[in-house]
Specification:
Length: 411
């Protein structure tokens, strides 16, 4: 008896997902609750587990867009392979039936390289104009995988003999030396959603950015003095992000409009601070949330940042962990950015941008001295936040960072 494995419901607003990767091959024996595929929604990547033990029969292919409830695969009755590595007998009928889909695909005019390439691979080859018969597949039974198609290069065209008048040479395309390859990739659901949200924010908010600079010497001195003791006691390093998060949550209490949002015709003010931290993940920028960051210590913030960043790198973040923030911090400085205007993370009303630390000459007590300086930028929605509030908020953050004792004394 076979069991259909369908796309599960993963969130109220999610209606479809993309099958990004099969973790098992067609005909493999899988255990119950073993992860067999990765699905990608417009908000997160999650794994699809087997709902029973048996032989996997793949229906959907990598790159397919599937609606919630669509059948991804079936699991047939069967036993685990013997110690010698032989496949169970239950797999034999599946192989005999495989010729039918191959024949059907060969008659389908939209199918490219029928019977030898997966649909995702066939589409890539078709776009590149490459004959599938010239590509060596590395998949099961020589099947051309998506990776094979992406790596495939079209053969150089045979040189043509001159058959046109010499005058036509004047309008011929210029010959450019060297390789000039292009490749196309289908946008992931996550990337498409990021694109839509960013354009929407630019079009639907009155976004402005105000700047300031921070002398990072006090924080650097404090970290240098206590970082070893801090790590020995708490098991985590003392980074800059915890100081910025603490400074932001303190300033948000004094300027609540920066922590507000618009919902229809109302302004919603939050008396808590759920801080979104922008993290670069393998599949794009994600923004996990530190809940109740205003009530956490420096240690608690550092621990939560490490936890969320690790999940982001491993594509383990849940939708709940990436929604509901009230204010965002992004650190372009880790990539070398000196100055930028970050885009608001809707429906929030403001975002703080950190940048790299540069040794620069500044005037201090009438003397020119060299200090490690960082530019900070606050992008905000002018529909909610006035200039006085935005500038005062950023000045308060600067004040707290340049005198970090204030963060502990709350003054």
């Amino acid at each position: 008896m076979s069991l259909e494995i369908k796309v599960p419901t993963v969130g109220e607003s999610i209606t479809e997902v993309t099958l990004s990767q099969w973790l098992k091959q067609d005909g493999d024996y899988v255990e119950m609750d073993e992860n067999i595929a990765e699905l990608e929604s417009d908000k997160a990547t999650f794994e699809l587990p087997a709902e029973k033990a048996g032989i996997l029969k793949i229906i959907a292919q990598e790159g397919d867009t599937l609606e919630i409830g669509a059948v991804v695969c079936t699991i047939e009755d069967g036993e685990a392979p013997a110690a010698g590595g032989e496949k169970p007998a239950a797999e034999a009928p599946a192989k005999q039936e495989s010729s039918a889909p191959a024949q059907e695909a060969s008659e389908n005019p939209d199918s490219y390289a029928a019977g030898t390439a997966s649909p995702a691979a066939a589409k890539i080859l078709r776009e590149k104009g490459i004959d599938a018969s010239t590509v060596k597949g590395t998949g099961k039974d020589g099947r051309i995988t998506k990776e094979d198609a992406e790596k495939a290069q079209s053969a150089p065209a045979a040189p043509k003999t001159a058959s046109k008048p010499a005058a036509s040479a004047a309008i011929a395309a210029p010959v450019v030396a060297g390789t000039r390859n292009e490749r196309r990739e289908k946008m992931t659901s996550l990337r498409k959603t990021i694109a839509k949200r960013l354009v929407s924010v630019k079009n639907e908010t009155a976004m402005l950015t105000t700047f300031n600079e921070v002398n990072m010497q006090p924080i650097m001195d404090l970290r240098s003095k206590y970082k070893d003791i801090f790590k020995e006691k708490h098991g985590v390093g003392l980074g800059f992000m915890s100081f910025f998060t603490k400074a932001v949550t303190t300033a948000l209490k004094e300027w609540p409009a920066v922590n507000a949002r618009i919902e229809e015709n109302e302004l919603v003010y939050s008396d808590f601070a759920d801080i979104s931290i922008a993290v670069s993940a393998p599949k794009g920028l994600v923004v996990p949330v530190i809940r109740n960051a205003d009530s956490l210590s420096l240690y608690g913030i550092e621990k939560e940042i490490i936890n969320l960043a690790t999940k982001a790198r491993d594509n383990k973040l849940t939708i709940e962990e990436m929604t509901g923030g009230t204010f965002t911090i992004t650190n372009g400085g880790v990539f070398g950015s000196m100055l930028s205007t970050p885009i608001i993370n809707a429906p929030q009303s403001a975002i703080l941008g950190m940048h790299n630390i540069i040794q620069r000459p500044i005037a201090e007590n009438g003397q020119v001295v060299i200090r490690p300086m960082m530019y900070i930028a606050l992008s905000y929605d002018h529909r909610i936040i006035d200039g006085r509030e935005s500038v005062s908020f950023l000045v308060r953050v600067k004040q707290l960072l340049e005198d970090p004792a204030r963060l502990l004394l709350e003054v």
